[in-house]
Amino acid sequence: MDESDFWISSDDDEIYAMEASPSATHFQLDLERVGQEGDFRTRNIPGQKQRETVTGYSSGPKKRPAFFVGCDAKAIIHGTLNQTAGTRATLLVYDFSFFSYRSVRIKAADIHFEFRSKDGIAGAGPLVQKMAPFATHIMMETSAQVTDTRNVSGGVSSGSVVNAQAGVKYEKSIEKTETYAAEVTGNQPPDDWGNHFQVSWSLKENTLQPKGIARQMRVCILLTRETDQEFQLLPTIEATPSFAGWVGSLLSTRPADDPVVFDPEYTPYNTLQVEIDRWNLDEAPLASLWDCTFYHAFGNAIKTSKADMSEEIS
């Protein structure tokens, strides 16, 4: 670990004290925040509904954050599952961002969305009809040859009453190929009565090549509603940074984000480049809408020098 793993405080940043042990085998951290206290939650403007930015927070100094986590709405569409049944429904599409800087990386992240009624009662609001991604999806797969060596003991017994063990020990080696990958797992756990009003996603990095989790992820949620009353979304998004980021986040407490209030009377909000029929939301292509991105490869990064790019030396 080098000095770049720890951020440098400025006048308006939190300040942490670190005391190193003379021993090279360990060190001790005595952390105490002595800078300004910050309110990092994402709040509603008074009377605001359908807030597009669900959350957005960083860890470390504002000028030099260790990482940033964000969630923004791409589509909020109220309508029906289909025109035949007329079941009330809402389609939500959100983009998550997990950006890290310098030597810090985000090793894992957990997302939890809970939908409640207008009064904040769990199970009395809309229910989850579909979600994407659902179950476990792997990406950035790598393989490694692993040798498993074990000590095996053998013996022989003699006599009908007294057993004598002649100990024989030897090593047994088995070579095998193990596969590692980054993962994203989606689930919609029920409550004690079987109602599905929650969704969750868990992201994990490839442990063989620890490069962090996906930098961007798009998720989709299709809800069914019994009424056109307003309802709430209670978001919880937690990121687990590498050690460098963890040190700076030890005492960085963050209040919960304000609930997002939805009003089914609002007109559709859709920034996707996909046309979605609000009266047939069950036909929305959730499987093709959700997405994960680790990085973008810029294909024209190496260029040939031009004559007008060189300076004339007199």
Question: Can you offer a commentary on this structure?
Answer:
With 314 residues, this protein is mainly beta. 3% of the residues lie in helices and 41% in strands. The protein contains two helices and 13 strands, in the order ββββββββββαββαβ. The chain has helices spanning 243-248, 286-289; strands at residues 53-59, 67-80, 88-100, 106-117, 127-132, 135-154, 168-187, 198-204, 216-225, 231-241, 260-262, 269-270, 291-293. Strands 1, 2, 3, 5, 9, 12 and 13 form a seven-stranded antiparallel sheet that branches. Strands 6-7-8-4-10-11 form a six-stranded antiparallel sheet. A hairpin with a 7-residue loop joins β1 (53-59) and β2 (67-80). It starts with 52 loop residues before the first strand and ends in a 21-residue tail after the last strand. The relative contact order is 0.24. Residues 1-39 and 156-164 have low confidence and may be disordered.
Short characterization:
The chain contains 2 helices and 13 strands, in the order E-E-E-E-E-E-E-E-E-E-H-E-E-H-E. It has 314 residues and is mostly beta strands.
